[in-house]
Amino acid sequence: MLNRLFSEIRFRLRALFHRGKLEQELDTELSFHLQKETEKHMANGASPDEANRRARAAFGAVQGTKDDARDARGISLLDSVVQDVRYALRGLRKRPAFTLGVVLTLGLGIGANAAMFGIVDRLLFRPPLGLKDPETAHRVFQHRLVEDRRPRIDRNFNFRRYLDLQRNTRSFESFAAFQTRTLALGEGTDTHEAKVTVASASYLQFFEVRPALGRFYGPAEDSVPAGAPVVVLGYDYWKSRYGGRSDVIGRQLRIDRSTFTVIGVAPKGFVGAGDQGVPAAFIPITAYAHAVRGPRYPTVYTWTWMEMLARRKPGITQAAAEQDLTNALLGSWRETIAEQPNWGKLEDLGIRGELGPMHLARGPLAGQDSKVATWVLGVAAIVLLIACANVANLFLSRAFARRREFAMRLALGVTRGRLARQLLTESLVLALIGGAAGLVIAQWGAAALRAAFLDDAASAVIVDPRTLLFTALAVLVTALLTGIVPAVQTGRGNVNLTLKGGANEGPHRSRARPLLLVFQATLSVVLLIGAGLFVRSLSHVRNYRLGYDVAPILYASANPRGYRPTEAEQQTIAESMLETAKRIPGVQYATLTISVPFWSNEGTGIWVPGVDSVNQKWNFLFNTGSPDYFKTMGTRILRGRAFDERDRAGTGLVLVVGERMAQVLWPGQDALGKCVKIGAENEPCAQVIGIAEEMHLRSLTSERDYSYYIPVVQHTAPPDPQVFVRVSGDPERAIEPLRRELQRLMPGPAYVNVVPLSQLVDPSLRSWKFGSTMFVAFGGLALLLAAIGLYSMIAYDVTQRTRELGLRIALGSSVSRVLRLIVSSGLRLVGAGVVLGVLLALWGAKWMEGLMFQQEPRDPLIYGVVAGILLLVAVVAAVVPALRATRIDPNSALRLD
Amino acid sequence: MARTPIDLLQGTLDVLILKSLSWGPRHGHAVARLIRASTGGAFEVLDGSLYAALHRMEERGWVAAEWGLSDKGKRAKFYQLTAVGRQQLRSETATWQRYSVAVAKLLTATDQP
Questions:
Q1: What is the rounded average pLDDT of the residues A589-610?
Q2: What is the interface pTM, i.e. ipTM, of the complex?
């Protein structure tokens, strides 16, 4: 038995590995046989030719015999696959235009998907690099109720809360505290800002990574309160700043306001829990907190800044752990309230803990970006579907053209299964090539995507195993989608009829193709409507008046970096910054400021005679400025006047209010001249001297925020050392001169940072920008594909109907009638698609609502324009082949076989 | 030809080949010749199927193949029964005999039972 098994295995192996030799042997054997037969027939008096013919006839087809003999060897499946692939490749080489078209179409479809998958995977699914046991690792969130019992979710905590949670929970193996901050690194002229993750030692233990060099810091170096001044460099930072030298260990690096000793280098690509990019360095959180806030920071509940991770103990369910967390939070808040009674009652705070996923984008605080990214992935999938429909269509028309060939082969005994397999192989080969092209496209397009969606461009490798796997799946689905219809079609039909029928006249026309076309048109309409909505949203955002200009303004700020100037010194620095900035060539106006849009803003309670509980009803942000404040910002004064040189420290207090603020405080009255007490009820009156545009300082749609403006010289605190400057010409070019001049004014370790205001404002426009770019790109692609599909189908139809059309013309049908006939058949299909697409878009509009900016998702204008575009494209795509049809010469058309 | 060739019944070819090889090793052509001659031309053995069958049997270990020289000095593949093949021939012969007796009994029966 065993012996037989061995012999069988040997036989199979021989069959696999000695294919050439076996083929040869088979040839020899069979030709020997033929020769013998031929000899026999010749001996019986046949001519050599006749003898040979008879010998072969008795044999059946030689090829068939070989196949049978091979089948016996059990390798025929593999063999026939190889054969099919060869056959497919040969066929594709013969039709380069067809092949190129299909590969490009699929490449774009698959490429778009691979690229988007890379992004969405990073945002939503893939655990951070090196994370140990992702199942039990969580981000910690806290729910509570704020004013008006509005729910609020926090992910920032204070250090004492972190200590409380560690002490008072039992369900967790460990907690980690961290935050990625932009800090100043280096000294003197070498000073630069970079992202630094300040993290507890336990944070590093959440990950299963080894340092590329040296070591990580441990609990002893992260001890409360002061820790140790050690730093682990990020890999990229080490490469770029230290040239990857190993003697970096032991070097000193100034970070923020203290000096740290380098003890290690993090492994390549390590970002930690990172949503904020690849850090340049990791430092112990205790060392940082101590340097910034002194030794009392672990004992107070006031400095809320860092984020937390938690790891459940094995065997503890998430619900149980969450309950434990909530209890510990409640205990911690009880102490908070004992120390700061103004928090109110614990019951009213509605404290609850949540263990969220590590991915912020999937957690309770997910931003708009992840939603848009998910949408765009959906859009990419639709584009792939359209591409598939197109290619399936092309395959169908090819299959239709080849149906006589197929019928012939069926008649010759090739099974339908084999034929279908061959067609599927062909589509698989094409999908594979398309997938390869897609990866190239994805890699190429990925840079743009990364820049738009992920901050850490350096760490994101788009073509990685997960993306490859996804692409492989996409290829497989594509192959099935494109190949299945033609394969099924070959299974149908009557061989006899087909063989008898003329080459250009099928017994049946495929019903699948028009359906595919309707499907394509439908999807294109949906995408284009989406594109229209996003484009309009973006243009609303762009044209939206923030209450100030953005493009021509630079923001320069002095960072004291631990230097503690006296109030008088800070005053001097701020004033000299303002004066210096004004002298820089290209600077038109400059102003001191306290609020920076989308960055930081100040609010102070106000009291208005005759209006009750002002601060409970509204939220007032205030800004201080120099006399040129409004000219610098481009904020328009609507009534009254701006503050100017006349308003000084000793003169009467004045303020300018935003127009909405004027409306809510003094509805129906003139706000000018009214009295506002700023800061406390017993402060003297400040007089409203002007009404200005409302500034949007926190968000584009801050309905609850109102703003007012006071002269910086009348503010109680010394001015912050930061200025806005308005530049004529290219603001980028003014950055460096401005920074250099201002840096000269800095005492000690302080340094100046200058950025365009747009850099601070743009992130809040990002989701619309990205959405409109991607929807327009994909929508355009979809339209193009649909147009190609329509064109090729109608063109093909015309070829098929040459005889009929020729007959019509011969019988006196006018050219315009023929044109109408053909164009209307195209229009009917696209029209059906448009109707379906519009219905689908109307239905899906409710999910788009949240992503739009001042844009009604059922905007009839957009729907109308899209429908028009599609119908127009349909007419154009149909007219070209239709015109060709009218030139058919009836004579030759009728003579076609 | 006096008699119309009969299509081979499924499974018949194997036993015919085994039988023709039981008289000694021979190449494929000789097997075909032998079958044709000894059945009086009753069976139309398509030569292609013959080789398929031979290879199948080789795979199953019923026959062993060896390259040798034909009587005219040409290279030819000679097939030979193995022990397993012989056993197979015996059991298939027995089956066939039982089968044909049974069929004949019914077909030649005169009374309805």
A1: 83
A2: 0.75
